[in-house]
Amino acid sequence: MFRNNYDNDAITFSPQGRIFQIEYASEAVKQGSVTVGLCSKTHVALVALKRNAEDLSSYQKKIISVDTHLGLSLAGLASDARVLSNFMKRQALASKMTYGRPIPIERIVDQIGDRAQTNTQNYSNRPYGVGLLVAGVDDTGPHLFEFQPSGMTQEMVACAIGARSQMARTYLERNLDSFHDCGREDLVTHGLKALKESLNQDKELTIENASVGVVGVSGGGEGGKRKLEGFKLYDGEEMTPLLERALAGEGLKVQEEGQGESMDTS
């Protein structure tokens, strides 16, 4: 994949103003299995498609809980995501110990963005080969952020990253106006339907290859205090009612044989 003398490190610009190492890292994100995030006025949902490298291996974890109010999903190198999620867990714990409160979502996303951007300024480092969707709730409400290997972060209403994610984004754009008023179940249903749009025709969503993470708030009507609904990860058998609701009338396939895919990206 060698191009020229400008892609030997992550600190050298090409004459066209490009940093090829960052572009290579972004390609790792595009090769990872798709993950979808959606945000309403009360909840944030993450929906992910899991891969297994072969029939004998388990499905790789795609959604990670960081704190009671915060979680993430990944597309790309799972090992890089593990490093970043561990850093986020330390920052979340430090905020509770120092300030006695959960860390604001925008602040922790900025911190991992700064950490990733620093890697583009040191010759001995490389960019993180992973993209993240960070979902959480703080005093200002629910938030969904996208993190890119370049260190760029942006808040989103809905987003999809990974392989074949364009089909999922098309579904999200088509239904964008309905997300704001969605409750917990409706948001998950939209996420699963968007995820299904990105699948090959010979594949189906199952309890084995799909996972969901949701966090949000409830109550707060007439000036009342809102209650945190902590980050909840749905996996395995817990996915059955969610899939049945999302795929009603389309037929639910509960089991699926593993597909041989690269173990480096998830």
Structure commentary:
The chain is of the alpha+beta class and 266 residues long. The chain is 30% helix and 25% strand. The chain is built from 6 helices and 10 strands, in the order αββββααββββααββα. α4 packs across α5 and α5 crosses α6. It starts with 19 loop residues before the first helix and ends in a 20-residue tail after the last helix. About 5% of the residues have low confidence.
Summing up helix and strand content along with how strands pair, one would put the structural category as: alpha+beta
- Contiguous low-pLDDT stretches (5 residues minimum) are 251-263
Helical content, roughly? 25-40%
Measure the end-to-end span: 21 Å
Annotation, overall tally of beta strands: 10
Report mean pLDDT, rounded to a whole number.
89
* General shape: globular
- Total count of helical runs of at least 4 residues: 6
Spatially, the strands of the biggest sheet line up as: 8-1-2-9-10
- The topology string of helices and strands comes to HEEEEHHEEEEHHEEH
Describe the largest sheet.
Answer: 5 strands, antiparallel
Estimated share of beta-strand residues: 15-25%
Alpha-carbon Rg, integer? 19 Å
SSE topology sketch:
Layout: H1 20-31, E1 35-39, E2 43-49, E3 63-67, E4 70-76, H2 78-99, H3 105-118, E5 130-138, E6 141-147, E7 153-155, E8 158-161, H4 165-174, H5 184-197, E9 210-219, E10 226-234, H6 239-246
Antiparallel strand pairs: 1-2, 1-8, 2-9, 3-4, 4-5, 5-6, 6-7, 9-10
Q: What would a concise description of this structure say?
A:
Helix content is 30%, strand content 25%. The chain is α+β, with helices and mostly antiparallel strands. Helix 5 packs across helix 6 (239-246).
